[in-house]
Each structure stands twice: as structure tokens, then as C-alpha cells.
Amino acid sequence: MRNSLQSQWLEPEAPTYGWLDHPGQRLRVLLLIFLLPSLAIGYRLVQLQVYRQAEFTHVFEATTTRIVEIPARNGRILASDGSLLAVDEENFELWVHYRWLEEPPHPDWLKRQANSRLSRRQRRDDKQVATMTTTLLNERRQLWERIAHVTGVTPEELDQARQSVQTRIERMKQAVLEKQIQQQPVTEQPTRSIQPTRSIAEESSPHAVTAWLDWGQKLWQEFQHELTTPPPRAENGPLILAEELEPQRVLDTLPKAAADEILAHPELYPGLEVRVRHHRTYPARQVASHLLGVRTPLREEEALERTKQWPQGDPLDYRTGDAIGRSGLELAYDAQLRGLRGLKRLTLDRRGQIVEEVMTREVRHGADLYLSLDVEVQRTAEALLEQALLPDVIDAPGDSSTNDVDNPQKPTRLTSPQGGSVVVIDVRTGQVIAAASAPGYDANVLTNPSATEWAQLTGDVRRPLYQRVTRMALAPGSTFKPLTAIAGLEAGMKAQSAIECAGYLDQPQRDRCLIFRHYGVGHGSTDLSDALCQSCNVYFFKLARMLGPSPLVEQARQFGFGQLTGIDLPFEQAGHLPSPQTNSAREPWYPGDTLGLAIGQSRLQVTPLQMARFMAAIANGGELLTPRLKTDQGPLLVTSFAETSGETTRTNVRKPSLAPQTLKEVRHGLYRVVNDAQGTAYKTVRLKEVEICGKTGTAEAGSGVADHAWFAGYAPASPPRYAIVVVLEHGGSGGKEAGPMAREVIRRMHQLGLIPSGSLAKNED
């Protein structure tokens, strides 16, 4: 060795050096041994910090997005005087963040809350952390005491509500955990193989060399895996549901004063939210319930149908549970009344804290709908109808005290009418002033009816849900005679031309005047004015026989019978206008059909609204109006109903061929019906304050069934302002039952200042 003692007398041998014998070489090797792992570690650090940083930090930087809905209010429906007929009432709900109601508090949440109130130095002090934790627990206790005080709910009830929410969420967590366990695959635990001790002979064999190489390769792979792979997370880590990071509803109904207090002092109520839910109510209850209709929650299957109808998105954003218009104006103007909810996108960090708020859609409240409806007139009409439907016994047969020659021998009625309707429209514009149907119902009941309430409504044989203004099609009886008169005058007949009435047409047993059945006499020589005044059937029978059916049918068609009026209400019925052209071989047209049509019988059926429009046309000079409930008054956001709900664009139609003298003669006859001592409505309809024009009608409904009672007219006589129609289904005499109701409605309109006074000096008693 180089360090051994050497003798100068010995012959030195040539030195032999190994590559590690030099100290410098050994230092280089040692440095390389330390440098290579350091380089590997450095390379790995650079790789993790620079190139693969996102793979490990995305968990901490990951955010979730949640869409929060801002409820919108549906538009109101208001009458002409501004009184509310339909409105969304605000219902406040109390929502509390789950961590603030959880008992006992979640330790991680409690720690984060405490740390958020401490500085970094204070967080290292366990005593200060414990003190802040105690403070937080006291704040939680005081928070619930404050909630109980401001809401008026007892602490016991609040504890019960909190426990109910916590039980529900814990049950959800347990179900998720059980499902995860069931879906987790069963894996075998890896076992390390222990290499047996090998002998020198075995280690020197070729197979031993190969085994050592394989073992070295596996050792290197394991080393590389341990160095480059992060440790796996524990499979039994805490499960956190989304509901644990969100507010939960604790109180369904919150007093407005309490809601204002919580919203005004958020620092005193951490973790609390006040949410608004709108509920449709009808303050007037039964008033105009048939016209208003109802809004009820959208069912799931209906929401799916809307999704199929609008695959790109429902333009009104209807979802399951949203209140949608089902009938009446709520349905007709649903697109205008519907409020569009706002949408806000919240970005949350992994702890559930809000880091960003973006309003993606502004809330849009529904537009208000203003009606031409007069609430007082509507209420009066409905009250009169309800009174008329009460069970009552009317006069015995043969009572002629009312001078009602339409039906002087009506049988004694021991039951009330099945239903009725009153319609009042402006003869100048077609605006509907009143449109009452009876029997009625409380619209609030239909928003969420109980089983008993629904059974009562649907089981009533009088059909209280039936909209009689636009759907009840009945024979009009003598109220149709003015149209027959118009057809005769337009065909060239002179109003002063007299027709002899013997009380019957051909035979005493049929086609008779009612005065003949009562007194056995006829009207004698009768002109058009007399025929309308005294409701002479024979006059119109002979007139129809001279004209034939075609002029009658044509004039009826031009005045809108057998057609929809175009009113802004859904499900309107057109009635039925029979004609020889539309009759089939199964139902041929007989000469008697022409006679029946002339007096409003046969197979003719009209609605109260059609008859009101007909009377308005007589009063305004022949203009056939399109009835309307909506008016343009008020701050409407949607000005065109046609743009939103597919409204018919039909406009008012003036009959160009109608001679002014024709309507003048008919109006004179209608004036005499009420204001002439021989008129059928003289004793039951005439008013001293207002001159009324009109026509009574008693339409036969079949043997064994009471007749339908009609009155149709307008007021005042000059200048006409409002057309009115009253009809009682199976109500009996038009002059005695329907006429007085029309008089009382007009009297109320006069009291309200809608109709000015008129002189009736010549007709005073």
C-alpha cells in the first residue's frame, strides 16, 4: 500500500493504482452520489411546481357555479276604478344556512369561522382560538333567541324545525354512503414477496443473475412510484352534500315586520335569508270569478309538453309548480300577466363562500291588466242573479198583472232557475261594463281546492263553473223578433203596413199568439211597431212566410249570430244558426222551421253576449262591435294583446247596406215595448229616471221544462249608451223574471252616474 513503510535498500516495485485509490477521485464519486439524487429531486420539484402544479392545486382552487332564481310577480288585474280583482300576494319564507342550524356545530366550520375573525398571530394561540369559538357558540344561541323573538315563534317550534331539516339531510347522507359502499369494488391487498436466502451457488447461477436483475427493476419502479405519486386520499373521508353548503327553509310563513327587520339588520342575523314566494289571490272573491279565471300550478307532465313544444327554451320560462292561467282572462292574457323570474349566477369556492355574483337575467314582473269592468255594476248583476236562483214559488197560472203576453199561462214553478247571465256593453266601443254568470264561486277556492270543495263545485247540477256569458247557447225567443223586423224592412216591407192578427196563423190549435191562448182574441190590425210592442207572433209568422228563410238567415249572419264575437275570453261558443243550406237529409228544412226562426225558436241558439252585441248594433246605427274586457288605460307594459296571445285581429264591422230608416223603425218599436202601456215590459222594466228600450222573450225549452227568460235592450233611449241582456236558464217569463233584473241594473248604473237622467213625463203614473 502507498502508506506502508518503505526501505531504501529494497528494490521498489512498480506501483499499481485503482481508479478509486486517489482521494480526489473518491471525492468526485461521493459528490456524484449526492448530486444525482439531488438533481432528480430538483427535476421533480420543478416538474411539480411548474408543469404539473395545476394537477394538484385545482382541488383547492376549484369553484362551483350555482344559479339562484329571483322570483317575479305576476301582473295584477284591475277594474275600471282601479280596484284589485287579481293580485299576487307576497309570502315571506325564512331560510337559514345549514351550518348555522346544525346541532352540534360542524367542527371544521366552527374552526374556519373562528379563524376568519382572528389574525395569523392570534390563530397560533390556542387560548384565543378557544375564546373565539366560545363567542361563536354564544352568537348562535343568541341568533335563535332573536329569531324566536322577532318572528313570534316559540323556541321549541324553532328547535323542531331545525331538527326536521337536519334529520332530512342526515338521512340523505346516510343513503349516499350506503350506496357508495355497495358500489365500491372488492380488491385484494397487495402482499410483499420475501426473497428466500440464496446460497452462493444459487447466486452465481445464470438464473440467479436474471432474478437479481428483475428484483432490481421492480425496486426501481417502486422507488419511482413512491417518489412521483402523491399519497392516496383516505377512502373514508368526510362526505359533504351540497345541501350542507346551502340555506335551508326553516319557516314557510314569515310576518312582513319580521322580514323587514331581518333584511334591515343583516349583521344581527348571519346565515339568514328572506325569500319571497308569490301566491295568487282574488280580493273580490266571487265578483267576476268566471271572467277572471284562475291560475293553478303547472303539473310535471305539462312542463314536459312545453319543453317539447319549445326545445330551445320556454319563452315564458314555465317550470313545474309555477302558476299558469287555466281559464278566463288569466288564460287569455297569460303572456302579458306572466312574470319572468330573474337569474343570478353565483361562483362558490370549495368552502361554499361566494366569490362572484353575476346577474344573467333581470327579473321582469308581469304587466298589469286593466279592464273596462265596473265593479259596482258587476256586483249588482251578480247579486240579482243569485237572488233569482234561490228556490221560490211564482204566481199561479193565468196571472196577467205583469202584462206579459209572451207567456201568460206559464206553469207554477217550485224550483229556481238553473243559471243565469247579465251582460252590459258600451254600444259605442264594445267595452264590457258587466258580464255576470250565476251560480258563481269563490275564485280563491280554485287556486288550491280541497277534495270536499272540489266535489261540491263539480257535483252541483247547476254547474257553477260554467261560463254562461260566452258559452250558454239558448233559444232567444221573442228577443230575436227585431232581427226578423230588420229582414222585412230591408226586403222592402213598409213599417206602417198592417197585418191582420186573428190570434193564430192558420189553425186555432197551433202557431198562435199568446194573447189568444190567454184571452181567445188576436191583436187585430197590427203594424211593425205594434208587433214589437205587443210581441205579436202571428205578425212575424206571416212576415217570415212572405220572406222565406234566406233573408232571415242572411241578416242573422250579418249580425254575427252563429259566429264568435271575438271577445278576449277563451272557449267562446258560436251558438247555432240553422239554415236550409246547412241542414242535412237527416234533418230537412220544413216550413215550420222558418216560422220558428222568425220568433227565435226552431233550432236557433244564441249566447247572451251575441244578443248584447246585436242590441248594441241596433242602438249605434248598425256597427257590429267586437266586445272587449281589456282597456288601454293604465301603465301597461304590453300594449298589443295580439302580439302575445294570438288575439283575433277582427275589428268592428258596419253594415253598409242597412238603411237608417230601418233601424229607426225598429228602435221605435223597442221603445214602445218598455214605455207604452201596451208594451210587454211596461210594468216591469220602465223607469222614471231613464228611458229604456228593449224586448222581452220567453223561449220554449221543451215539454216538462221551464222556459228560458230573456230581456234584451239598451239605455237610455237617446242617445244610447249601454246595451243590456238578462237571461235566466229555465227562468220562466221574460217580462216578469228577466225584465225587472235589467231595470235594477240600469237603476244602479244611473245612481253611479253612468247613465244620465231622461224625461219620462208623458209616461208617469
Automatic annotation (TrEMBL):
The Penicillin-binding protein transpeptidase domain, residue ranges: 420-746
Location of the region described as Disordered in the Swiss-Prot/TrEMBL record: 180-205, 395-418
InterPro entries with a match to the protein in the record: Beta-lactam/transpept (IPR050515), Beta-lactam/transpept-like (IPR012338), PBP_dimer (IPR005311), PBP_dimer_sf (IPR036138), PCN-bd_Tpept (IPR001460)
Stored SUPFAM superfamilies: beta-lactamase/transpeptidase-like (SSF56601), Penicillin binding protein dimerisation domain (SSF56519)
Amino acid composition bias (Polar residues), ranges on this chain: 180-198, 399-418
An annotated Gene Ontology molecular function: peptidoglycan L,D-transpeptidase activity
GO biological process: cell wall organization; peptidoglycan biosynthetic process; regulation of cell shape
PANTHER family: PEPTIDOGLYCAN D,D-TRANSPEPTIDASE, PEPTIDOGLYCAN D,D-TRANSPEPTIDASE MRDA
GO cellular component: plasma membrane
Keywords assigned: Carboxypeptidase, Cell membrane, Cell shape, Cell wall biogenesis/degradation, Hydrolase, Membrane, Peptidoglycan synthesis, Protease, Transferase, Transmembrane, Transmembrane helix
Protein name in the entry: Peptidoglycan glycosyltransferase
Localisation: Cell membrane; Membrane
Membrane disposition: Single-pass membrane protein
Highest taxon of the lineage: Bacteria
Domain Penicillin-binding protein dimerisation as annotated: residue spans: 70-357
